[in-house]
Each structure stands twice: as C-alpha cells, then as structure tokens.
Specification:
heterodimer, A: six-stranded mixed sheet, five-stranded antiparallel sheet, B: mainly alpha, MetI-like fold, 2 domains, two-stranded antiparallel ribbon, 24 helices, 1% strand, globular, disordered N terminus
Chain lengths: 351, 582
C-alpha cells in the first residue's frame, strides 16, 4: 500500500520536452525529495503525480493501480492525494475549520470516524500543526507560517495515499523554514505517509528526505540517500548543485589517487577515500568548501600556494575565495583560522 | 515482492481498461476549442463581414460604386471633418483634465480623494445623452446660465450656447476625461517611488523629475487613455444627436443614423460605406492604443503604491477648491439644472414655488404608455443581457485564462471587436445580419426587442469578460487545484470555491453591463420599432419632439436610480473586502 511508481514517463509541452523517460519508485512511508534547479522538470513530475497533467508517454501507478498513461488520466479529485502548494492556496472566503474540513466532506474513502465527527478530526489536526483553537479565523488573519500549517493540515486530514509538497517553505522567512522542517519531519513520523517533496534548496532535501532524486533538464541525474548524494556525487552537476563543490584540475593515477596540477611544479598526489569514479573521465576532483584547510604559507614550502581574494565573516564560519593559479576556490573554515585579504596561504585538500 | 507487484499490475491492467471513468483530456480540449470558435465567428465576426459585403454590392455586382459616390459628396466630408474635430479636441480637453486630476489624486496630499474619485467616475456611469440634456438645461439659450446672466445685466445676454460644435467638444471632453483619469491613475500608482527618489538624489529639481521621469513613464498610460477618449468621441451618438442635429452639424454617427432612418433605396448601402469609414478610423485608434499599452515600460504587475509623494502645503486649499469647483460646475450644476426643469409646470417659467409640480414625473411613470413599455423593455434587456453575459462571459474568461495560446488571443480580439467599433456601425451590422442570418432563413426577429438583446450581448460581452478575467487571474490556478486535489468535483469546485471568489469581478462586470444596457441609446435608436423602444429612445424622442419637461423628468429619475445602485454596489464591495481581505 501507499506507494507510487512512475514508469518511463515523458512529458512534452508543444515542442518543449519537460521530462525524458523518467522512472521512479516511492516506497511505503518513504520521504522522497525531488531536487533540482528551476526548469528541471521537478514540478511537472509532481503535477503528473497529482493528476493535473497527462503524461505524453509512460505510466503512473498509485497503490498498484494505473492512474495515468498517454491516453487517459484519472482526475486529481479521485486520486486521494494530499498536496501542499507553494502559494498555500488556502480558500480566503472559508474559515480555517472550513478549509481543513473540506477534504473530509469531499474526498473518497475517508475513514468513517472522521466523517462522523469532522470537528474532532480537524481539531486534532490543528493541534498537531500547532494551531489548536484557531478554527474560526479566516486565512487573511493568519501569518505566513500559520497559513502554511493550515495548508499542511488540510493536506493530511483525510489520511492521504500520498502527500505531495511543492516548494512549501519557499515563501517563508529563513528562521521559519528551519522550524517548519522539524514540523514536517514530525508529521512524517506520526502519520507514516509517503511524501514527495519538491525543492530547489539542497539543505531542505538533505535535512528531511530518506531519498533524494536530483533532476536536471527533464532527466534524473542521480538517486540516492542524502549521504550518498552529498558524499558520492555521480556527476559534476550533482557535486556542484549539492554542496557547491570546487572542481580541482589534475589527473587520476588510479581510483584512489588524484594528481593535483600545480603551476610550475610537479603535480601533487592526493589520497581519495570515496568512490568518485565518474569524475575520472572529467580529469577533475570535486572538493567541497569544507574539505579544504588553509595554513599560513611558508616560503620554500612544498604545497599548493593560494592567495586570499575575498573573506566573508558568517558567524560560525568564514567563507574564503582563494586564488590558486588560474582558478578560484571556495573555502569555508572555522573562525579559528583567520586570514586577511591578500594573504598568501597553503591550501590542503582533505578528501 | 517485486514480482508479486508486477503480477497485480498486469492483472489490474487487463481487467481495468474498459470500465474506467477517466477523462480523455486531449480530444476534450480540441472540442472545447471548436465549441468556442464557431459561435464567436458567427456572432461577432460574421455581422462585420456582412457589412463589408453590402458596402461593395452594387447593381452591377461587386464594386466600389457607393464608395466613390459618397466620397464625392461634400456632406460626407463635412461629417468626417466634424467627427474628427470633435473627437480630437474633446480628447485634448479630456487629457488636460484627466491627467491633472490623476496626478493630484495619485501623488499629492489633497483630501477627499475617495469623494473626488467617485465624482470623477460619474460621467462614465450616467449616460452621455442624459449629461448632454443636463447641459442644455444649464447652458442652452434658455438655460440657467444665460437666464442668470440676463437677470444680472438687466437685458438679454447669451454668455454661451451649448448647441453647436463647441458645445459638442466641451460635453464630449467632460464625458470622456474619466477614461484618461483612470488609466493615468493606475500607471502613476505603479511607477515606483524609488525612481523619482533616484532622480532627486541625482540632483534633479522636482520640475525635472516630473518632466524626465514621471511623465515619460506614465506616457503610455496617458496616451492610451487619450486614444480611448478619441475612439469614444467617434463612437458617441447621444451628444452630437442632441447638440449637433438641431444646430445642423452632422458627424459620421448621426449621418449614418439619418441614412438608416431615412430608408431610401440605397440607404443601407450608403450607411454601410459610412460605417466602414468610421470603423476604419476607430480601429486605427484601437490598434494604436494596443501598441502603446504593449510598449508600456511600467510593470503592470508591480504593486500599487498609494502613498503621498508631494505635499502641497499652503497650495493644498487652492487645489482642493479648484477640484471642488470643477466638479460642481461640470457634474452637479448641470444635473441640478436638469432636475429643476423637470419640476417646472411649463417649460420657460421661472423656478418659483408656485410654478413647481410633480406632474411630469407622474406622467412619464403612470400615464405615458410608451415610457412604461420602454422602462419594461430596458429593464428586461438589462437583466437578460447581464445574465447572459455573466454566465457565458465568465466561462469564456475562464477558458481564456486557462489557455494562454494563440487561439485564445485571437478569439478575445474577435469578441472585443463589437465594442471597439462605434455603436452605430455595430447596430447597422446587426440589422444586416439578423434580417436574414443564413440565405433563405428569416427568423423574424428584426424589429423586435430580441434583436436588440442579441446586439447588446454581442456588444457588451467583452465588458463582462474583462471584469471576470481580473478576478480569475487574481484568484489564481492553485486555489482551484487545491480544491481538486482535496476531492472537490466540478460542481463543488464552482459552487463552493470558484464562484464565491470570482464574485467581485463577476458582479462588477454584471453591474457595468446592466447599467450600460439599461441606458443604451445608439444601437437601440437604430433597431427599435413600435413596442420595442428603450429608455434612451424615449428620452431622445421627447427631446426631438420638444417635450423638454418630460425628457428631463425621465432623465432625473434615471440618474437617481443610478446613484442609488452605485451606493448599494459601494456598500457591498466594502463588506466583501472586509470579509476576504481582512
């Protein structure tokens, strides 16, 4: 139960191909994040799951039932899916209670006890999202964060087969986003519903998802756990998009030794402990800003020499831009190591 | 597990294919396209085609015979000259008034903005022929103004006579400045304050800011309002009919009217050639306006900023006084003069207690069968036109918003044609079409009130479409999608979610369409016959027959009704905003 399968789905809008033969599986109770830059097709994929669009080819299955192929499509109102929209999409002329109770009255296969006593169910849901007692308010009387919670309550009130979330936190401010992440995780734990969560914010995906699907140009770039996506990116795109990697030029001696190119010097061997096979062909080593250490430069030293171009104080850490030969590397360090603009530094890679 | 799943799949797949109730989305979409395309082509485009065909039909087959005959006629050129002069000069007047008033209301700390705004909108809501009638009572030869001047001087003087081309220009300008005012106001609100601040901090004086930043940015809006005033000037029939016909000054719209009413052997052919002439000038204006709006550099989606940008200081009193005096003279006094005439026992008697009476009101309401009939007709026409436009127009707007493709754009252009073209042109096209819509089929509606209904729906349809579109766009697609995903079926979605949210735009459109239809004159003056006359036709008839006390009494009643409706509408809107916007 409670699973979804996308099989060989393509979607064209006129001449534009939005999705290329996508396959994916959302298991029972799984929290799947669709991550990618805008225009990568993640929202289109979500709308296909919801039933707002029809696939140009391929099939979509919900709970072992075919719900859409190229000829026909089960309309959204029959799919028993909960959805949280980017703009909240609360109905401004209805109260919080009426908004949340709407699916109880209109969805199919709502558990009988909820139908019998919608007041209790709505109250329970509002309690769960931290809005207990706000039934009588209108959406215009709520703050952004409260609106988002109502939207969440409305999406889960009827025990949906699947919960879809379309960049639900992007219109909230930074502090509230962190807070809401915890609440979404809490709800996921409580309900055990499968969730498909669309976002362009890598930290949201890394923080909450069981599985991340990185998308680019209508194709799946990589599928994996947050740990795999972060530490074992399978392509330069994933390395860059998730964790802002620097691409260090050089050559691979073997799968665990990278020979770092240095200007006017012999290349420097670097030990690599992770599996970064896909980068061997590219002749680069992906290095994250936190995988670089900086030390004061001693004249005559054998190492990589760099020069500080920018320093940004961030509170807990410092962000440096270091000029190394022709390249500029992004480096983040703790505030114990402080360098100033123009300082010469020795750069050490800890990969 | 995986194999298990696969078998269930295939089994379900095999048994499920036939009995599913799903939508097959693509053919439906195509069908809807045709379902919209065909009626639009028949109701909105075909009549204009008939008009063009008739204009080139001569005894010897197709040809430009009537064109060359009419273009050689001095009366044609005189009408073209008067039409253009009246339209251009009234536009200049509308621009001066509209832009100044918009700037004062948008940027300065002038008080009573709400009241000024409502007063400035009045000329759009009160039909122009009623306003013209009011002006004849104030500034006609025996009007309040000239009588007052004569009384002051002790001998007869004529300060100004509103009959004539100058009168047409002034009344037209005063009727159409709200168009300039509205469009300019919306552009001015949308120019970010920061742009002016940036110019000030770069050393520009406030005069230079106005000249080099504000005006250039507002120009597309201003010019667009000006063109709208120009087109409305060409379109207008009431003002030149009331002020021009008695003074022997023809314009194109009155000339077409006289041709059709005159009913000669080639009357329709001649009228259709004149209509095409008028239509081409008007469409040229519309095209230019469309280009200008497209070029507008002020972002239409940027938020309105209604904060005060200039404090007038001591000059504020002066500005408020000037605006108040202007509104008093141009709106209040003419209407008051008109009302005072309606109470006078016999036209020409002085306004004294012993000369006052209710009898004209009683006569038009109770004793005059034609007026009662016209009231019934106009109410029925307004109601049915409003209802039809409300339902079909909102559905059309909904269809159009969902599909921002070429076909939608084209069809929207088609349905706005009958409104962009002068009413006289549309009226004539309607006659030509509905006498015999398809060769061999005469539905017999020509000369009935149903003919007028069809013409009204065709002409005012776009007003409803535009109003509904505003609300549909504001509500946005996600609100409906949220209802769908929450299990709401078609009727639930429309009844519970969409209609309540679209209501403000739908009702604004309904109000606009009903009011316009209720007091319409141009089309009904062509299409009416005994038993199907409208209020506009009756007032026009009273005026032509010289029954001024009756025309003013009926007009006074109409204005009162409009003001009451306006108050109700305003109250409802306030209630709605409080509920939804908090």
């Amino acid at each position: 139960m409670n699973e979804a399968r996308v099989m060989g789905v393509s979607k064209r809008f006129g001449e534009v191909v939005a999705l290329h033969r996508i396959d994916l599986h959302i298991g029972k109770g799984e929290f799947v994040a669709l991550l990618g830059p805008s225009g990568c097709g993640k929202t289109t994929l979500l709308r296909l799951l919801a039933g707002f669009e029809s696939p140009s080819s391929g099939e979509i299955w919900l709970n072992q039932e075919l719900v859409a192929d190229q000829d026909r499509r089960m309309p959204p109102e029959q799919r028993r899916i909960g959805m949280v929209f980017q703009s909240f999409a609360l109905w401004p002329h209805l109260t919080v209670y009426e908004n949340v109770a709407f699916p109880l009255r209109h969805q199919q296969h709502v558990p009988e006890e909820y139908k019998q006593n919608p007041r209790a169910r709505v109250a329970q849901m509002l309690e769960m999202v931290g809005l207990g007692g706000m039934e009588k308010r209108y959406p215009s009387q709520l703050s952004g964060g409260q609106k988002q919670r109502v939207a969440l309550a409305r999406a889960i009130v009827f025990n949906p087969t699947l919960l879809l979330m379309d960049e639900p936190l992007s219109s909230l401010d930074a502090e509230l986003r962190i807070q809401m992440r915890k609440e979404i995780q809490h709800i996921h734990r409580e309900l055990g519903t499968s969730i498909v969560y669309v976002t362009h914010d890598q930290s949201e995906a890394l923080a909450m998802a069981d599985k991340i699907i990185v998308m680019r140009g209508g194709r799946v770039e990589q599928v994996g756990t947050p740990h795999e996506i972060y530490y074992e990116p399978q392509s330069p795109f994933v390395a860059k998009f998730v964790g802002r990697a620097n691409f260090v030029k050089g050559s691979w001696a073997d799968s665990s030794t990278f020979l770092l190119e240095r200007e006017g010097q012999t290349s420097l061997p670097v030990r690599v402990s992770q599996d970064l096979t896909p980068f061997q062909r590219e002749q680069v080593l992906p290095v994250r800003p936190d995988q670089i250490r900086l030390h004061p430069w001693q004249e005559g030293q054998d190492g990589v020499k760099g020069r500080v171009q920018h320093v940004q104080f961030q509170g807990r850490e410092l962000l440096y831009s270091i000029q190394v030969g022709e390249e500029e590397w992004e480096v983040s360090t703790d505030i114990a190591t402080r360098f100033a603009y123009g300082d010469q530094v020795a750069v050490e890679l800890v990969v | 597990m995986a194999t298990n799943w696969q078998t269930t799949l295939t089994k379900r797949q095999a048994e499920g294919r036939q009995q599913r109730l799903w939508t097959a989305p693509i053919p439906m979409e195509k069908a809807a396209g045709w379902l919209v395309l065909l009626p639009v082509a028949f109701f909105f485009v075909y009549p204009l085609w008939k008009l063009v065909i008739l204009s080139v039909k001569t005894e010897a087959g197709l040809g430009l015979g009537i064109f060359s005959e009419l273009l050689a006629d001095a009366r044609t050129w005189s009408a073209v000259y008067h039409s253009l002069t009246a339209a251009v000069l009234s536009t200049v007047l509308a621009l001066v008034i509209g832009v100044s008033l918009a700037w004062l209301c948008a940027y300065t700390d002038i008080r009573f903005k709400g009241a000024i705004h409502v007063m400035a909108m009045l000329p759009l809501l009160i039909p122009s022929y009623v306003m013209t009638l009011a002006w004849t009572q104030m500034a006609g030869p025996a009007g309040v103004l000239n009588r007052f001047a004569s009384w002051l001087m002790g001998f007869p003087v004529e300060l100004w006579n509103v009959y004539g081309l100058d009168g047409i220009i002034v009344v037209m300008g005063l009727s159409h400045y709200p168009l300039v005012y509205m469009l300019t106001l919306s552009v001015l609100y949308r120019i970010p304050k920061e742009l002016e601040w940036a110019a000030r901090s770069s050393g520009a004086s406030s005069r230079n800011v106005l000249r080099q930043v504000t005006l250039p940015l507002a120009l597309p809006g201003i010019a667009s309002g000006g063109l709208l005033a120009f087109i409305s000037g060409l379109d207008n029939f009431g003002i030149p009919a009331f002020l021009g016909i008695p003074a022997g000054i023809p314009v194109l719209s009155t000339l077409i009217y006289e041709q059709v009413i005159g009913f000669g052997p080639s009357a329709f052919g001649r009228a259709s050639v004149l209509s095409i002439l008028l239509g081409i000038i008007a469409l040229g204006g519309t095209g230019l306006q469309w280009l200008l709006l497209r070029k507008s550099r002020v972002d239409q989606t940027s938020a309105e900023d209604r904060s005060v940008r200039y404090t007038l200081g001591k000059k504020r009193f002066l500005a408020e006084g000037a605006v108040g005096l202007f509104l008093l003279i141009t709106s209040f006094l003419p209407l008051l003069s008109m009302a005072s005439t309606a109470f006078i026992k016999a036209y020409g008697l002085p306004f004294l207690a012993e000369n006052l009476t209710w009898k004209h009101f009683l006569f038009v309401l109770r004793d005059h069968a034609g007026t009662r009939e016209a009231l019934g007709n106009s109410l029925m026409l307004a109601g049915l036109t409003g209802a039809l436009c409300l339902v079909v127009g909102t559905l059309f707007a909904y269809w159009r918003v969902q599909r921002p493709h070429k076909l939608g754009k084209m069809l929207e252009g088609a349905v706005s044609l009958p409104y962009a073209l002068p009413g006289m042109v549309v009226g004539l096209a309607m006659i030509l079409t509905w006498m015999e819509p398809i060769p061999g089929w005469q539905p017999g509606i020509y000369g009935t009130v149903w003919m007028i209904l069809i013409a009204y729906v065709t002409r005012f349809f776009i007003l409803q479409v535009k109003s509904s579109t505003v609300s549909i766009l504001q509500v946005g697609r996600e609100v409906e999608e949220a209802a769908r995903i929450s299990g709401g079926k078609l009727w639930t979605r429309w009844g519970r979610i969409l209609l309540p949210l679209y209501a403000p735009g739908m009702l604004t459109g309904l109000f606009l369409v009903m009011l316009t239809a209720f007091t319409e004159l141009t089309i009904s003056s062509l299409l009416w016959s005994s038993g199907s006359q409208t209020i506009g036709v009756v007032i026009f008839g009273f005026e032509q027959a010289g029954s001024t006390t009756l025309s003013t009494a009926l007009s006074t009643l109409i204005v009162t009704a409009i003001l009451i409706l306006l108050a109700i509408g305003g109250l409802w809107k306030r209630y709605w905003q409080r509920r939804v916007e908090g």
